[in-house]
C-alpha cells in the first residue's frame, strides 16, 4: 500500500516521485540542449533559434544538467536498497552498465565544458548570474580535454538515449514486463499491458 510518505521514495515495485521527477527533468534538459544545438546547426541565427537560446542558453543548461545529475546520483545512491531490482542475467548487467554510462556522461560532458570555459579566460554565467569570474589568461590544459571530448561524448550520449528509448518501448510493447510502468509510477505487480 502506498502512503503519502513513501510516494516520494523508491520501492521494489516502482520508482518514487523524486526519482521520476529527476529522471524526467534530466530528459527535458537534454532535449532542450540538443534542440538548441541542432536548431543552430540547421537554421543558424533565426528567430526560433534565438528564442530557444534565450530559454535555454547552452552553458546555463549544461550547468543545470550537471547539478540535476549530481542530485540524481546522490538520490539514487541513497535509494539503492529500495529501488526496483534490475532484471537478472546479461540484460540486468547491460542495463546497469548503460545507466552508469549515462551518469558518467551527464557529469563529464558539462564538467568538461565548464573547465573549457574557464580555461578560455571566460566567466561562467548561469541565466545572467556570474558563477565563476573570468580567468586572467587562457589556460591550455583546461581547454584541451573539452576540445577533444565534449562533442564526441555528447553524440555518444545521444546514441545511448536513442537506445534507452528503444529499449523502454521494447519493454512496453513486446516484452510487456512492467519495466516502463515503474518509471511512470505504476506498481510493477500489475503487468505493463
Could you say what the CATH architecture is? Answer: Up-down Bundle
SSE arrangement, N to C: HHHHHEEHH
Oligomer: single chain
Percent helix? 55-70%
Strands across the major sheet, in which order?
1-2
Q: Could you tell me how far the N terminus lies from the C terminus, measured between alpha carbons in angstroms?
A: 21 Å
Q: How many strands, which pairing sense, and closed or not: the largest β-sheet?
A: 2 strands, antiparallel
Please tally the helical runs, counting DSSP H or I stretches of 4 or more residues. Answer: 7
Q: Spans of 5+ residues with little confidence (pLDDT < 50)?
A: 188-193
Number of strands: 2
CATH topology: Fumarate Reductase Cytochrome B subunit
Domain Cytochrome b561 bacterial/Ni-hydrogenase: 14-185
Cofactor: heme b
Keywords: Cell membrane, Electron transport, Heme, Iron, Membrane, Metal-binding, Transmembrane, Transmembrane helix, Transport
Subcellular location: Cell membrane
What does this protein structure show overall?
This protein has 193 residues and is mainly α. The chain has helices at 4-7, 17-43, 47-55, 58-78, 89-119, 140-175, 179-184; strands spanning 124-126, 129-132. The relative contact order is 0.12. It has a two-stranded antiparallel sheet with strand order 1-2. It is elongated and about 55 Å long. The two termini are 21 Å apart. The chain is built from seven helices and two strands; from the N terminus they run αααααββαα. The longest helix is centred in the C-terminal third of the chain and has 36 residues, at 140-175. A hairpin with a 2-residue loop joins β1 and β2 (129-132). α2 (17-43) runs antiparallel to α4 (58-78) and α4 (58-78) packs across α5 (89-119). The chain has a single domain (4-184), classed as Up-down Bundle (Fumarate Reductase Cytochrome B subunit).
